Amino acid sequence: MEIEDxxxxxxxxxxxxxxxxxxxxxxxxxxxxxxxxxxxxALESPGEESxxxxxxxxxxxDDLEDEMDLEAEETENNEQIVPALPIDLKHIPLSYTxxxxxxxxxxxxxxxxxxxxxxxxxxxxxxxxxxxxxRNIIMTAGTAPSGAHTEPWTYVxxxxxxxxxxxxxxxxxxxxxxxxxxxxxxxxxDLKPLKTDWEKEYLTTAPYLILVFKQMYxxxxxxxxxxxxxxxxxxxxxxxxxxxxIHNAGLVSLxxxxxxxxxxxxxxxxxxxxxxLTLLLxxxxxxxxxxxxxxxxxxxxxxxxxx
Length: 307
Hints:
Layout: H1 3-43, H2 57-76, H3 101-116, H4 131-141, E1 153-158, H5 161-182, H6 184-191, H7 202-205, E2 208-215, E3 217-219, E4 225-227, H8 231-248, E5 252-253, H9 262-268, E6 275-284, H10 300-303
Antiparallel strand pairs: 1-2, 2-6, 3-4, 5-6
């Protein structure tokens, strides 16, 4: 039998299979081609349009899994649902001293003058700062309001030079990829006037690094997961108070959100899986020759709507 006859015979034998399953075969081929195109696109540098790097997929999946676990636990243990706080929580009189409108106005003016001098600083002095000052600053941040008083924040204070170097290595490795591939020409161009790039010398120069983690959930006394309501907003409010307390103490900082570094830094700092990095702040005194961009803030009429 000729080779051509064998081929035709084989096709004839397989024809019923192809006729019955051709939609699935075509779909599989299309999916395979689409996957190849997406993979190739991911390896290429982005175009001129500036888009933020996509969040770490595993991190996002962890968040989704945690939410599903919480819902499942609440459903399974519906009969055991009790408040996270004591059911007989005592309420006490508010500690409050009223001041005159004149004193209030004076305080707001003085506080605005203080805070209007707050600047983001990228040039730090290695001069040490008493750790008690930093601890007081973090305690102040801990006074922030939170959903159902869950206080969903953890502050990791790093002063060890070797650990700071490890953190810098992780951040710079990811930031270099961000600047060269992920961020796009427009974003990188917009950052040039601020004189920032992937090198982060301040991470090892500043005497302290404060890493702010949000706790996506906690644990009840019975071991079940405890929902942390509005954890993102709660930690954001606390971060604002943290920055205010740093400036009030006569120190400077830089609000750094290291893209794609969260999982690696969480593992490095031995933080549990229910925590996610939201902010990294070098804190200390400014270098003697420190400079900042000559920027102005929006006037009141551009940020306030009175009705």
